[in-house]
């Protein structure tokens, strides 16, 4: 099958877990005998085509007034960029040219910020079926998060609805709508997106062979080594974690952070950090990071779609304490491979952490091995191939 995959960024421009997931999928599909082309945006202004691990990658400048990376537009330029991203008159021609070049049997779109949802109308006009995977809330919110002033937006605000309207209309052209979590998919369907599409949930993939499991910490003494791996910001719950740990008995926990300390931390965060004394490891690989900790903490306070860091943690045999938000609950089997915290408060997170002891951590680590089969590349790529075939069937009706 000839498959064209579209995503805002791709190697070497990794912004986060979504780019890793798309690359892993593209290369796994290629290994299964498919011809895979990735369409993505360039961050250095150079449009070119390269081959990486058997996948053809085509880099384009964004069909907009400017590229949004590495320098983000500001002021009026930012507003115009978002308006054109919502509805771009040149986007249809841009995608028609690309699709005529790649001639795919199916177009698989992912994060389309900067690339334009006109990909869907162009594919429809050419008789090419479309599968779209939801990995964030970009279609609903220009900020991608539906999170404002420390709180989740239950529904898109009036401003976001203006930007979302053209994308919602174009989404009628999609045959199969995939959510990387049920929460992400339902949130879009509830807001009127993909009215003609068959909905599916397909999680991200991760290969156990890509990591090595931690050795059990039987008999280990000293503080429990907690890990936080990801963006250091409010919605990811880093402030919540600091506040929680600042109130715990001294010497009970030690916090290792995969990232750099922010210079612009609020006085409140700095006060908690002075008490907790987290160790910032800077840039580090998942293999190195998970080999250093006993338990990962994922304290998000927004509707996190499907954090790849939890998938990685489970596959490295490191249990997870996570807040029950977004897609996190779809990855954690409470009491088996981790612990779910019902309410994202310092007190409830603290109770969950204080309940951890060495035997509990070892039991949960063993549970990780039982649950990591749900992320196997063979399983996930097979589910996508089935979705592609289904999209082709629906297109011919």
Q: What is the tally of beta strands?
A: 16
Strand % is 15-25%
Helix-strand topology string = EHEEEHHEHEEEHEHEEHEHEHEHEEHHH
Globally, the shape reads: globular
The main pleated sheet reads as: 8 strands, mixed
Question: First CA to last CA: what distance?
Answer: 20 Å
Radius of gyration: 21 Å
Q: Would you identify the regions where 5 or more consecutive residues have pLDDT less than 50?
A: none
| Oligomeric state as shown | single chain
Structural class by helix and strand composition: alpha/beta
Measured as a percent range, the helix fraction is 25-40%
Mean pLDDT over all positions: 92
Counting DSSP H or I runs of 4 or more residues, the number of helices is: 13
Order of neighbouring strands in the sheet with most strands: 3-4-2-1-5-6-9-10
Task: Describe the protein.
The structure is a single chain. With 397 residues, the protein is an alpha/beta fold. It has 13 helices and 16 strands. The strands form 3 sheets. It has an 8-stranded mixed beta sheet with strand order 3-4-2-1-5-6-9-10, with helices on both faces. Helix 7 crosses helix 11 (346-354). The longest helix is centred in the C-terminal third of the chain and has 19 residues, at 377-395. The two termini are 20 Å apart.
């Amino acid at each position: 099958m000839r498959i064209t995959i579209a995503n805002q960024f791709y190697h070497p421009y990794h912004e986060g877990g979504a780019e890793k997931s798309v690359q892993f999928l593209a290369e796994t599909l290629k290994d299964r005998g498919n011809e895979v082309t990735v369409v993505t945006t360039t961050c250095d202004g150079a449009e070119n085509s390269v081959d990486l691990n058997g996948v053809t990658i085509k880099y384009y400048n964004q069909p907009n007034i400017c590229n949004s990376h590495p320098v983000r537009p500001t002021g009026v330029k930012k507003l115009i960029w978002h308006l054109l991203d919502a509805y771009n008159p040149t986007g249809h021609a841009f995608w028609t040219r690309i699709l005529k070049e790649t001639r795919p049997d199916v177009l698989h779109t992912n994060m389309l910020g900067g690339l334009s949802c006109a990909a869907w109308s162009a594919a429809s006009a050419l008789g090419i079926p479309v599968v779209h995977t939801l990995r964030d809330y970009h279609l609903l919110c220009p900020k991608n998060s539906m999170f404002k002033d420390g709180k989740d937006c239950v529904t898109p605000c009036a401003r976001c609805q203006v930007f979302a309207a053209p994308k919602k209309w174009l989404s009628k052209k999609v045959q199969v709508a995939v959510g990387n979590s049920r929460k992400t998919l339902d949130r879009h369907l509830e807001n009127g997106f993909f009215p003609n599409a068959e909905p599916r949930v397909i999680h991200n993939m991760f290969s156990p062979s890509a990591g090595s499991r931690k050795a059990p910490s039987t008999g280990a003494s000293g503080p429990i080594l907690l890990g936080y791996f990801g963006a250091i910001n409010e919605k990811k719950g880093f402030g919540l974690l600091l506040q929680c740990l600042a109130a715990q008995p001294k010497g009970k926990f030690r916090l290792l952070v995969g990232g750099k300390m922010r210079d612009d931390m609020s006085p409140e965060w700095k006060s908690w950090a002075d008490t907790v004394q987290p160790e910032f490891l800077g840039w580090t690989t998942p293999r190195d990071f998970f080999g250093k900790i006993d338990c990962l903490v994922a304290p998000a306070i927004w509707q996190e779609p499907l954090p790849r860091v939890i998938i990685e943690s489970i596959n490295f045999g490191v249990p997870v304490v996570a807040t029950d938000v977004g897609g996190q609950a779809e990855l954690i089997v409470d009491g088996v491979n981790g612990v779910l915290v019902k309410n994202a408060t310092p007190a409830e997170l603290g109770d969950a952490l204080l309940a951890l002891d060495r035997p509990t951590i070892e039991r949960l680590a063993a549970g990780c091995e039982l649950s990591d089969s749900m992320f196997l590349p063979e399983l996930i790529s097979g589910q996508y191939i089935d979705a592609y075939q289904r999209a082709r069937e629906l297109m011919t009706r």
